Amino acid sequence: MRPARSVSAASGLLCLALLASGCAGEKNVPDYAETYRRLASSAVKLYIRIEPLRGSRLGLASADSLLFSYSREETGGAVKSLKNLETQFSKIPAGRLSEEEVDRATVIINWLRGTRFGFEVLDGNRSNPLLYTWAAEEALWVIPSRVVPPYDGELEAYRKRILRTGEDLPERLSRLSS
Fold first, then answer.
1. How many domains does the chain have?
2. Closest to 88 measured CA to CA, from 50, 121, 120, 41
3. Does residue 44 lie within any of the structural domains?
4. What pLDDT score does 71 carry?
5. What averages of pLDDT result for each successive group of 10 residues across the chain (178 residues)?
6. Is residue 165 included in any domain, yes or no?
7. Is 142 in contact with 134 (CB distance < 8 Å)?
8. Full domain range(s) for residue 167
9. In this structure, is residue 81 part of a structural domain?
């Protein structure tokens, strides 16, 4: 009688283990919501890097002392980052995200594609001198015109931005196509 009981107990435990593992959800399934949040955060950081003046106007104080110079190196690096993020976003199955996350991911993907189009196809930094004058004006007046006091180290970063603007502007203008 004991052997029957131990087989019965063992099969009961095995059945319980199988049921519990079935209720625990799918194993080895990536957390797509977490992947989306990580990529969205990377996209915001890239936006601030590429568009620090707009980021500053949106109230992102960390962008106030930054400057994107539109050099070949910066635009090349930005295009590479834009393509990389777009590829990573496209690997996330929409069915694994909430409706709100899908909507936001669509906005981000459209921004990634549009910005890359601007760099690769429109190439406005080689044909629009107003881009550089706007960038210089924004770089010089953002911090003095805002009401929030500068955070630690920001005034030094702003000083570097002003000096960089003066150095970069002639070089930028020389890159314009005739």
1. 1
2. 41
3. yes
4. 74
5. 47 38 52 92 91 77 70 87 95 92 94 92 73 70 72 77 70 64
6. yes
7. no
8. 31-174
9. yes
